[in-house]
Structure formats: C-alpha cells, structure tokens
C-alpha cells in the first residue's frame, strides 16, 4: 500500500510538471487570438496540471496519514456536519458582504474575506471537509453575486486550498493533537501560507485560461484581468492568513473547553492521548 501511495504521489507530481511544460510551450507559441494547435497544447497541459495536483495531494495524504478513526459517534458526525455547514455559510458571507469589486472590460475580480473561512474550515475539520465546505459556500456566493461564470473555477480552487491546508496541518503536523500555543500558531501559520501560496499562483493562471479559451474573451483583456487578479489574490491571501491564524488560535481554546472541538485523531494515538 505504501508503495502504491508513493507511485500515486510521484505520478501526480510528474503529471503536473509535464502539464506545466506543455502549457508553457503552447502559451509561448500562441501569438494570436485564434484557437490554434498551440491552444490545444495549453488545454492538454492545463488538464495534466489539474490531474497531477489531485493525484499528488491524494498520494501524499495517504502516504503520510496513519490509520484514521473510522467509527465516529453519531454526535461527532453531527458536530462535523454542523461545523461544515457553518463554515460554508461564513465563506458565503465573507465573500458576499465583505467584498470590493474591481472591473476590467466588463469582467470582475474582487478583494474579499471568503478564503479566510476556507482555510479556517480546513484547520478545524480537515482538508476534505473544510475544502468542500469552503468550495460550496463560495460557489453559491458566485451564483448570487454576478460571478456565475467563475463558479466552476471557484469550486475547484477552493477545494484545492482546503486539501493543501489540511495536508499541511493534519497529515504532516497533526494540528489537532498539538497542545503548545506556540506550536499551534506555527502550524496554523505555515499551513495557511501553503494553501494561500497555491491560490496566489493558481487563481490568476486558471482565470486567464478560463476567460480566454472557455469564454473567448480577447487576449489583452484576459491578460489584464490576470494581472489584476494577481493583485487581489495576493491581498486576499495576506488577509486570509492573518485572520485565519488569529481566529483559530482564539476559537480553539473556547471550543475545547466547551467540548465542541473536533479532534482529528489517528488510531495509533488514541491511547496516547486518552481518547476513548
């Protein structure tokens, strides 16, 4: 099983690298706005990048995860589901009501706080649950705020943010079992930066391909949008990292004290930590 996970992670990394190379070749050779064979290379490369990222993260999670607790109690399932719904709602609110729009050629990008709750959800609930909660909340926000065409891109990117934050926080660093305040803050900060660093790179690039090739927006407008998106994404990343670290370190002690903290334990560590 370990060998299989290593192969999956290596295959994912290789696919992502091949995809980047193919997409770069296609992009560099594309000198007009027509759909040509160079554009086909970009499509193929971008597809390989997406598949590669998914395989890489999946392989790393399985490779470094210990056997997880399978039999959560009904109360724990309800708690996790309730928190996921809450974070989806908070992500929606963070985008819908804490947003400043910027417009270029009829297309929009925005400063917002929605990503804060994607990161926070992954820190509290794990990568998959947190990523899904944030992705659903922000996708619904897109549908209700004039960003309908960005909804599929939003779902994919926010899910990836959650998976990456969860991978760093729980698979590698075992955040939910940490007790030292300094260690908790350090893990939270590093994990948040990992997720947001991915978004800083992926969001403008994905947005450029998405606008130009899927919706046929002229190359100069798509390029201007990508540059503007780089700015808004970077600012959003700084805000998200800052607020998620502050909120997690502030909320966790209160949730632990009240018995509402969802601890992501591994089977091998249950007896060590007194978890029944």
Describe the 3D structure.
By secondary structure, the chain is mainly alpha-helical. The chain folds into two domains: 1-64; 76-263, Arp2/3 complex 21 kDa subunit ARPC3 (Orthogonal Bundle). The protein has helices at residues 2-29, 37-64, 74-96, 114-125, 127-143, 151-172, 181-214, 219-258, 270-273; strands at residues 99-104, 107-112. Strands 1-2 form a two-stranded antiparallel ribbon.
Keywords:
mainly alpha; 276 residues; 9 helices; 2 strands; 2 domains
Number of helices: 9
Low-confidence stretches: 266-276
Oligomer: single chain
Give the CATH level 1 class of the largest domain: Mainly Alpha
Q: Please identify, by name, the CATH architecture of the largest domain.
A: Orthogonal Bundle
Tell me the radius of gyration: 20 Å
Could you give the order of the helices and strands?
A: HHHEEHHHHHH
- The residue-averaged pLDDT reads 80
Give the overall form: globular
- Helix share bin: over 70%
Overall structural domain count? 2
Tell me the total number of β-strands: 2
**What order do the strands of the largest sheet run in, or round the barrel if closed?**
1-2
Note the beta-strand portion. under 5%
What's the story with the biggest beta sheet? 2 strands, antiparallel
Q: Structural class, from secondary structure content?
A: mainly alpha
